[in-house]
Structure formats: structure tokens, C-alpha cells
Backbone:
């Protein structure tokens, strides 16, 4: 990918190092948003198993709808918060926190049986999920000029399409084919996000 003219004359870093950084930033940020879809879809994958689990008899379909609404409300609120925090503390720190909270809340949902626990963890998951878009776009825009962002972001946004396509079957396979337990949908997707958290931290 050729560097745009305004970045070619950058005095911050040598051209070859800047090119490597651009490739690395593209790859890592793509992977982060791709991975977030795994924990994002864990609850929808687990719903069938939860309804069939006698120990979760208090979890009714209407209550699941309330939990979905709770998650979406937290997600909407987080969209207003994380962009500001990324400006103040940097996108990297915000993304690491978001990934950590997403993985932890998903893993805990794989063990909890309390409805109030599910509710609180759905709030945490919604806030964590919303930490992705604004900081990642800020990160990308720092390395790609305006004149090339349309093309670059066109490729970059394949992350959410592929994430949404792969995450559900992945969680379902672990939950219903491997462990035959809906809780594995949460734990397996939490493991994916935790792995990406480590990759992002050392990148």
C-alpha cells in the first residue's frame, strides 16, 4: 500500500518504519474489532441452552429481552464516553480496558446463575463493546491520510462482517457440540478476546 504524499514527507519516522507501523496498526485494530464480536454474540448463542436448563428457570424469554435492552442501553451510553476517554488517555489504553472487561464479563456470565448478576454483567459487556469503534477509528486515522481512508476503511470494516459471521457458529460449536453446555459459549468467546488482549498489549 503506497503512502499518501502528506505522510511520505513525515519527519517523525523513516518511511520504511512508518509503513511497517501502518501495516501493524491495520492488522491489530482489525483483529480487535473482529474479536469483540465473539463476546458480543455469546448471549444470543447461549439463549437456547439457558431456556432448557432447569437451574436457570428464572430466566424467561421476556427477561432475556430485558437483558438485551440493558446491554444495548449500556452500549449506547458507552459510545458517548469512550471517544472522549480515548482523546484523554489514548486509544491503546481504552482498548485494553475494553477488551479486559469484555473477556472478564463474558467469562463470569459462564459461571453465574443469579439474574441480577447477568444484568450487571450485561451492563459491563455493553460498555466494554462500545469501547471499540471510536478509539479504533482514531488510531487508524492517525496513520492514514484523508485521501486514502475510504479505500483503507473499506477493507478494514470487513472485521465486523467476518466477526459477525464467525462468532455465532464458533460459540455454538463449543457450547453444543463440544461441551454440551451453554456456559461454554461465554467461556470460549472470553478466551478469544483474552488472547487478542494479549496480542494487543505486546504489539
Residues:
Amino acid at each position: 500500500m503506497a503512502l499518501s504524499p502528506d505522510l511520505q514527507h513525515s519527519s517523525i519516522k523513516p518511511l520504511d518504519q512508518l509503513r511497517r507501523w501502518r501495516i501493524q496498526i491495520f492488522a491489530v485494530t482489525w483483529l480487535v474489532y473482529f474479536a469483540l464480536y465473539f463476546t458480543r454474540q455469546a448471549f444470543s448463542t447461549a439463549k437456547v441452552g439457558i431456556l432448557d436448563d432447569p437451574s436457570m428457570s428464572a430466566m424467561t424469554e421476556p427477561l432475556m429481552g430485558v437483558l438485551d435492552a440493558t446491554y444495548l442501553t449500556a452500549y449506547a451510553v458507552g459510545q458517548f464516553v469512550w471517544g472522549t476517554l480515548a482523546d484523554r488517555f489514548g486509544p491503546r489504553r481504552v482498548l485494553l480496558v475494553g477488551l479486559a472487561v469484555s473477556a472478564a464479563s463474558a467469562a463470569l456470565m459462564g459461571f453465574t446463575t443469579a439474574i441480577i448478576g447477568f444484568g450487571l454483567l450485561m451492563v459491563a459487556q455493553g460498555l466494554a463493546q462500545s469501547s471499540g469503534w471510536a478509539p479504533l477509528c482514531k488510531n487508524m486515522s492517525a496513520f492514514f491520510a484523508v485521501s486514502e481512508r475510504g479505500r483503507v476503511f473499506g477493507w478494514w470494516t470487513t472485521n465486523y462482517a467476518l466477526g459477525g459471521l464467525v462468532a455465532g457458529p464458533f460459540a455454538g460449536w463449543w457450547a453444543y457440540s463440544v461441551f454440551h453446555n451453554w456456559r461454554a459459549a461465554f467461556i470460549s468467546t472470553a478466551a478469544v478476546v483474552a488472547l487478542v488482549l494479549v496480542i494487543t498489549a505486546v504489539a
Observations:
- The first helix runs from residue 5 to 8.
- The CA atoms of residues 30 and 188 lie 20 Å apart.
